Predict the structure.
Amino acid sequence: MTKFFSNLTIKTKLVLAYTTIFGILIGSFAVVTYRSIGDSRMARLDAELDSHAGKLLMEIDEDMGDQEDIEDDWLSGLTTEDLNDAHLQLLTVTGAAIVKDSLLQTAIADWPSKYSFKSAQHVNLKLGTGDYRVLWQPVEIDGTVLYVLELAMPMQDMLDDMEQLRLLFWILVPAILLITGMAAYGITQASFRPIVNMTNASRNISVHNLNERLDLPKTQDEVRLLGETLNGLLERLDSSFRSQRQFVADASHEIRTPLAVMRVELEHALGNTSDSLVRADIQSALTEIDRLSKMAGQLLLLARLDSASQSNERESVRIDELLAECVRRLKAFAESKNISLELYIEEAIEYLGDSEKLKSVFDNIIENAIKYCPSESSVQVSLARVRDEHKFQVTISDNGPGIPEDEQQKVFGRFYRATSQRGEGNGSGLGLAIAMRVIELHGGALTIESHDGKGSTFTISLSEDSTA
Ligand code: ADP
């Protein structure tokens, strides 16, 4: 039960709470109203009976004043003429009827046992097929109770009215509850709308669009305060990410100059020595300098790509020509490893994009395929349009070592190199991170399908409609 409640949304909890509280209140109100109307109708009936009994007692009293003893004959003349539908019976204390009523006679059997003959008493009795309110009124003569006046009036009208009232409450209370529930839902929905909007907007904010801010409601309430607090948090995060990116960009930029100087000096030293051991050392240092320079360049590029929210250097690019150029450039590398590099172009595709960056993405993925495949394997590059969707896909497949499933998403992370390639020189682990970011900035997707030991397929999907 507790688990059920803790799983409910605040909106549902509020609606349930409002409806329950209102239900208890309206239910109690209905019960109290019903009871008090019933009591007052009953009191009115009793008052009518009492007043008529009073009149009859007065008649008896007056008659007592006129004569010594009261005659049973006179008593049998008492009637209920001015009381509609009423029944009258006059009995002696032993139960012998002086004024007899056929309906009241049906209840005569048990009345003396219930009746104390001390004071007037009102009871509900079922007489015949109807319900009656009955007054048992002792008639005292000279301080002794000699007779009992039994007056009955039908309760049917009152019971019918009460039944109608009950029916009305049974219809009204659930209807009011339903309306309250719906109103409570509407009110909570409207009150939570700004929070839902802010949640959705926050979900779309990532490290790449920290400059975006949440729309604040016009009200001056807690929700606005929450929005202002979140916007303040975003502001601080944005500024700290910006300075971190700036630091990376500055550092990688600064590193490139000394590396270039070192390269020149090492090349000079290489030209001045014929010692094969020294030459080998210098060559290896030059390779490392190249790797470091490439890494510094990639870091600088990543820092710039991170601060961009979209690719803004767009021009019309022939994707088929771009791919052909990459394949031409990498052909020699593939041949050096005896790898067949094939290009399949289904149709020429013109796309509005950043040609330099797209080329570097294709280059990196094709180069990776050649780099990580053993010799004698094959790499296929293909370009095809996705029918009816204004989209096209570039796929680069190889039958190389593949990437284990648990590492397939990690390879797009920064500095990540699959376990099997770690320790092997020549890689930085930044190429796919850059590729992913470039494709994201073009509003496209870069996905991987790979089977350990059987090869990998990288798919770049780009939409011709995308303006991102
Ligand atoms: P690197 O400079 O190491 O190539 P990338 O970011 O381009 O960096 O690639 C990240 C890692 O993904 C690589 O180190 C490699 O382990 C793995 N990888 C990328 N392409 C392939 C591929 N075609 N076959 C197998 N592994 C690959």
